[in-house]
Design goal:
The complex is a heterodimer of chains A (about 325) and B (about 450).
Chain A lengths: L16 E4 L13 E4 L17 E7 L7 H4 L9 H10 L4 E5 L12 H14 L4 E4 L4 H14 L6 E5 L5 H9 L3 E5 L4 H13 L7 E4 L9 H16 L10 E3 L7 H4 L8 H19 L3 E4 L2 H15 L2
Helix pairs in contact in A: 2-3, 3-4, 4-5, 7-9, 9-10
Chain B lengths: L3 H7 L13 H9 L13 H11 L6 E3 L6 E3 L17 E7 L4 H13 L1 E4 L2 E4 L2 E5 L5 H12 L5 E4 L3 H10 L6 E5 L4 H11 L3 E4 L3 H14 L4 E4 L5 H16 L10 E4 L6 H10 L4 E4 L4 H14 L12 E5 L8 E5 L2 H13 L4 E6 L6 H6 L5 H10 L2 H4 L4 E4 L7 H8 L2 E4 L7 H6 L4
Helix pairs in contact in B: 1-2, 5-6, 6-7, 7-8, 9-10, 10-11, 14-16
Classes of the chains: A alpha/beta (about 325), B alpha/beta (about 450).
């Protein structure tokens, strides 16, 4: 009987491994270190070789103002207390915590940098998972906050977010100073993603400290663009484009902004289940196109994606 | 397709000129460009003919199921990644009816299946096929249920291990080209004979690709060309890997015996939705569902719409004046372009503001704000034209027009031409809620 050939590609490039979280042994207080990236082939093809396990970070918001209630409803019983929220994510099996300090935004709460540092410390004390910290979106204030947070978390190896083309120096310096990693954001374009990594490398940031976020557009909101940008980034990296060989992080939470995800419409089925699948489908597209780390908002989507990773890796 | 040199090697090299070209090489070049037919050469050998025909055949066979305007076409794909050109024939979804259900159950399931229909950016998203499964082991009942399901007009998949049941159902319901599902090692001879006799496409199912290739050889030898493969993956990992192996071997021509579309059966699978999503992204052509909850169907159908979009052609939404949050005559008008991404983002942000407003979508041939402006597809004149065409100034007498911050330089001339008070909005759409909630309105 004819043997079917396995069309294995011989890639010359490899994705960098980025380590997040330090245990007491490395000077931190996390229960374990996570390895991200390390891919040597296209996603989930074991015959090409797979990299480190894809990971899921549970999102926490220190202000829920303007966030669609349905997307965070399961945490309502915790009164959206960030510490309880973090503990719940740990119970739900999240690999990481992603804290978004929205309260820093002058248009939301204009909370102080000191308060932001306190929030980060409270979460670090409450759960032992590796941490991602986002600012509130105000450049100047975020620059201060990231520096303070970097100092307060010295030794923990958290991920600071996010470096952008016109605002990367202070955050990159803050990350490097205390041995943290960072997330580099670019706007849905292979060349912009590459440009961002070049800027960081020129500035002296080592690429094994960087995760790229090429903007994951949600289902129905341009998902196809992201799907192809991600694939092209990964293909170029495997064909040995050094400046694209950083692991990829995709934030799925914008899926909840899509009207069709949660609009009340009887013939569209239960809005919470639909919204969760909207986020999970965005996540599946991200995984299949090369994502190494996903930021997830809803416990139901988390559950779907945890199962998907086990199944896709054949564990 | 072979190159001119590869073709030239197979030609008689007589340079006789009977093909109307002076040399065989000149003829080969025309052949490579598909300008002439091989039959124009009177001396070509049968062996060369067979070789050249094989290399010019599409890597994945095109299969048609059903007939008339609802027929579905699958296969004939040429790419591994959608950005290389595009994916041509979208994944088709089928809902399965069991012939051991009561008539009442059949009716209610058919009704539910027909209700799975959503309209989105000018397309109606629905299921494409119905399947009937022969659980009763009773040929009469099978034919009866098939006849009933055929009435709704969608192409059918007949699911049975028994060729005689298939034959009777096809004849009694006078079906054209239903998919026969499936031939396995145990019934391949009888199944391919029936498929040949009824001129139906045939699905082949086997756990391993070698067996599948053997079944395909058998079917072709019987004269059945329209084949579909069920790779019977156990887990999501197998699905992605096997689908990729089959697709890549066909496209790269590293194995030519399995160049057929792929079918996935997720009936009785607790991970039906997950697998259907993966099959939609990774080379699946048909998914057979037991049932489909609308809360899962909508994201699945939208995923298919997204993935099968032509990367060269931006998706456009209909130009026009859209009311958001129930606006009246006192509420302002904002405008944006008809590029779907821009539209969805802006619409979402206006909606989020929870402030009533009118959103004017200007036809920019699917370009985003800055691109359209630079390309001259979004001008002061085209905005005024859109205001007039939609009678926007009658619906909103507020006299306020909010323009995208990226094209603030339009404001002066636009104010003059439109006679409205032009307010320059934020550069990023995410700033819209703040602007709309500000005291100015």
């Amino acid at each position: 009987m004819a043997k079917i050939p396995i069309p294995k590609e011989k890639w010359s490039g490899k994705i960098e491994t980025v380590v997040v979280g330090n245990t007491p042994e490395e000077g931190g207080s996390r229960s374990s270190q996570l390895m991200l990236g390390g891919d040597v082939g296209m996603p989930f093809l074991s015959y090409e070789g797979v990299g480190h396990r894809q990971r899921l970070a549970g999102e926490i918001l220190d202000s829920v103002e303007g966030i669609p209630e349905i997307s965070i409803a399961p945490f309502n019983e915790l009164s959206y207390d960030v510490v309880e929220w973090a503990k719940r994510w740990k119970d739900l099996g999240a690999d990481m915590i992603c804290l978004k300090l929205r309260s820093l935004d002058p248009e939301i709460e204009d909370a102080s940098v000191e308060k932001a540092v306190e929030t980060v410390n409270n979460i670090l004390n409450a759960v032992d998972l590796p941490l991602i910290v986002y600012g509130g979106g105000n450049r100047e204030k975020d620059a201060h906050a990231m520096e303070a947070i970097s100092n307060a978390c010295a030794g923990e190896r958290i991920l600071l977010a996010q470096a952008e083309e016109d605002a990367y120096k202070s955050i990159s310096a803050a990350a490097t100073a205390n041995g943290h990693g960072l997330i580099a954001y670019s706007n849905l374009d292979v060349n912009l993603a590459k440009q961002m990594n070049i800027l960081l490398a020129d500035f002296g940031t080592k690429l094994d400290n960087v995760l790229m976020d090429p903007l994951m557009a949600a289902l129905g909101m341009g998902l196809e663009y992201s799907y192809s940008v991600n694939e092209r980034i990964r293909l170029a990296a495997l064909m040995s484009d050094r400046m694209l060989q950083t692991p990829m992080c995709c934030d799925l939470t914008s899926a909840w902004e899509a009207r069709e995800a949660t609009e009340e419409e009887e013939s569209w089925g239960d809005p919470s289940e639909r919204g969760s699948w909207w986020e999970a489908t965005t996540g599946l597209a991200a995984l299949v196109s090369g994502a190494n780390l996903l930021i997830v908002r809803h416990p139901r989507s988390m559950e779907i994606l945890q199962d998907a990773i086990v199944e896709l890796r054949g564990e | 397709m072979a190159t001119a040199i590869e073709i030239f090697k197979l030609l008689p090299k007589k340079n006789c000129g009977k093909c109307n070209f002076p040399t065989c090489l000149a003829f080969a070049m025309q052949l490579a460009n598909q300008k002439v037919k091989l039959s124009d050469c009177p001396f070509v050998s049968d062996e060369a003919k067979a070789k050249l025909e094989a290399s010019s055949a599409p890597p994945i066979h095109l299969v048609t199921i059903g007939s008339g305007d609802k027929k579905v076409e699958i296969g004939d794909e040429t790419e591994l990644y959608r950005h290389e050109k595009k994916f041509f024939h979208p994944t088709c979804y089928a809902i399965t009816i069991s012939d051991s259900m009561s008539d009442g159950e059949v009716e209610s399931k058919l009704k539910r299946a027909e209700e799975l229909s959503f309209e989105r950016i000018g397309q109606v998203l629905t299921i494409d096929l119905m399947a009937v499964r022969n659980d009763s082991d009773n040929d009469t009942r099978f034919a009866e249920v098939v006849s009933r399901v055929a009435e709704i007009g969608l192409p059918l998949v007949l699911m049975s291990e028994r060729p005689e049941a298939m034959k009777r159902a096809v004849e009694e319901a006078s079906l054209e080209k239903p998919l026969l599902y499936a031939a396995t090692e145990g019934n391949i001879e009888a199944m391919s004979s029936v498929a040949k006799e009824l001129a139906c496409p045939l699905a082949l199912r086997a756990d391993d690709l070698e067996t599948l290739a053997k079944l395909a050889v058998h079917a072709r030898e019987t004269g059945v060309e329209d084949l579909i493969l069920d790779l019977a993956p156990h887990r999501a990992k197998d699905l992605v890997e096997k689908n990729t192996i089959v697709r890549k071997n066909a496209i790269k021509r590293t194995f030519d015996g399995l160049g057929y579309p792929i079918i996935l059966n997720v009936c009785d699978d607790e991970r039906a939705v997950l697998k259907a999503m993966l099959a939609t992204m990774k080379y699946g052509s048909i998914v057979l569902f037991d049932d489909l909850n609308p809360a899962h169907a909508l994201p699945l159908f939208v995923l298919r719409q997204n993935i099968y979009t032509d990367p060269q052609v931006p998706i456009q939404v209909r130009a026009g004046l859209y009311p958001v949050n129930d606006p009246g005559p006192d509420d302002p008008i904002l405008f944006t372009t008809n590029f779907s991404l821009t539209y969805f983002t802006v619409m979402g942000d206006v909606d989020k503001a929870k402030v009533p407003a009118w959103l004017l979508v200007v036809d920019t041939e699917g370009l985003s704000v800055l691109t359209a402006y630079s390309a001259g597809k979004l001008t002061e004149e085209s905005v005024v034209e859109a205001l007039e065409e939609t009678s926007a100034k009658e619906k909103s007498t507020s006299g306020i027009l909010i323009i995208p911050g990226l094209i603030s330089r339009m404001s002066g001339k636009l104010q003059e031409l439109s006679g409205m008070r032009v307010i320059v909005g934020p550069r990023e759409s995410s700033g819209i809620p703040k602007l709309l909630r500000s005291e100015e309105f």
